[in-house]
Automatic annotation (TrEMBL):
The keyword NAD applies. Residues 9-186 form the 3-hydroxyacyl-CoA dehydrogenase NAD binding domain. It comes from Desulfosporosinus lacus DSM 15449. Pfam families: 3HCDH (PF00725), 3HCDH_N (PF02737). This is 3-hydroxybutyryl-CoA dehydrogenase. The record marks 144 as: Important for catalytic activity. Residues 191-287 form the 3-hydroxyacyl-CoA dehydrogenase C-terminal domain. Pathway: Lipid metabolism; butanoate metabolism. PROSITE patterns: 3HCDH. GO terms for molecular function: NAD+ binding; oxidoreductase activity, acting on the CH-OH group of donors, NAD or NADP as acceptor. One of its GO terms (biological process) is butyrate metabolic process. It comes from the Bacteria. NAD(+) binds at residues 13-18, 36, 96, 101, 123, 147, 279.
Length: 288
């Protein structure tokens, strides 16, 4: 298979990442089906297009024709089978839980055409933890987008030991078609490149808050003013979702059993209180 053979892309999950990945693919001219178990998330994704694109057209980022075509190219459905059955390439962007991803890939393998490639947008989980739930591990890899996926250009493509070079190459070529800068990681490692750096920053920032050394606002100010970061770690956690940070840490802790991988008390508290960041209008900051 070659990248030119890809006509239909299926995106699983219409959450913070999924709906923007779907529209990124549609803007690149692909027929896209986006599926989610939650009808509410599918409606939200459609609503997003109605409010977001007019602003972008007026800023000159895309033309009205490009946007109209992209919206026409994208379908949202709760029906998994319908979304998957004609896909040439599937990007899974459902919740960050290995058990759910494995189940999804098993289902995908049963329904999707034999030639279809399956990529996971997981933030940390290497695809070898998922690929053996299919009968096509050579066609499974990581394709890790960044938030917001319509804006951020970088995509990490991770080739696991089971991933064929053809699959990794097609995924890199697809990045290019989607106007993204792919980086090809030829070895799997938990968290890939960017999130390994980010995790180290989050860990230190949360430790300083948990120890009462400084507030989230002060730490954000320190990192933006002194280190030139465009956004502080707490504002970034609010943006990507404190629920996601908690789930990622919890998954890791369950896997390693190492107490240092446990979610920090501040993140556990935010998660329990439903203060998940921008999506819930409150996190370390308020977004009312
Ligand atoms: N948020 C980020 O900044 C970010 C960045 C890069 C990658 N990721 C990764 O992207 C994936 C999704 O993250 P998100 O932040 O968009 O999460 P989210 O919680 O916003 O969205 C996840 C969506 O998956 C849906 N879902 C759950 N189980 C499903 C199933 N069985 N079938 C179909 N849909 C299902 C949920 O209803 C929800 O709409 C995760 O693997 C995450 O690690 C997130």
């Amino acid at each position: 298979m070659k990248v030119e053979d890809i006509k239909r892309i299926c995106v699983i999950g219409a959450g913070s990442m999924g709906h923007q990945i779907a529209f990124s693919a549609a803007l690149a001219g692909y027929q896209v089906s986006c599926t989610d178990i939650s009808l509410e998330m599918l409606y939200k994704a459609q609503d997003f297009a109605r409010t977001y694109f007019p602003q972008q057209v007026s800023k000159g980022k895309w033309t009205q024709e490009q946007v109209d075509q992209a919206i026409k190219n994208t379908t949202f459905t709760q029906n998994f089978e319908e979304a998957v059955r004609d896909a040439d390439f599937v990007i899974e962007s459902a919740v960050e839980k290995i058990s759910i991803k494995r189940k999804l890939f098993e289902e995908l393998d049963r329904i999707a055409p034999a030639h279809a490639i399956f990529a996971t947008n997981s933030s940390f989980i290497v695809s070898s933890k998922i690929a053996d739930s299919t009968k096509r591990p050579d066609k499974v890899c990581n394709m890790h987008f960044f938030n917001p996926a319509l804006i951020m250009k970088i995509v990490e493509v991770v080739q696991g030991p089971h991933t064929s070079t053809e699959t990794a190459q097609i995924t890199m070529d697809l990045c290019k078609k989607m106007n993204k800068n792919g980086i090809w990681l030829k070895k799997e490692i938990y968290g890939f490149v960017v999130n390994r750096f980010l995790s180290a920053i989050y860990r230190e920032a949360l430790y300083l808050v948990d120890m009462g050394v400084a507030t989230p606002e002060e730490i954000d100010l320190a990192l933006t003013n002194a280190l030139g970061h465009p956004i502080g770690p707490f504002r970034l956690m609010d943006f990507t979702g404190n629920d996601l940070t908690y789930i990622i840490d919890m998954e890791r802790y369950q896997e390693t059993g190492d107490p240092k991988d446990k979610p920090s008390p501040s993140i556990a508290e935010k998660y329990a209180k439903g203060e998940w960041g921008r999506k819930s209008k409150k996190g370390f900051y308020s977004y009312e």
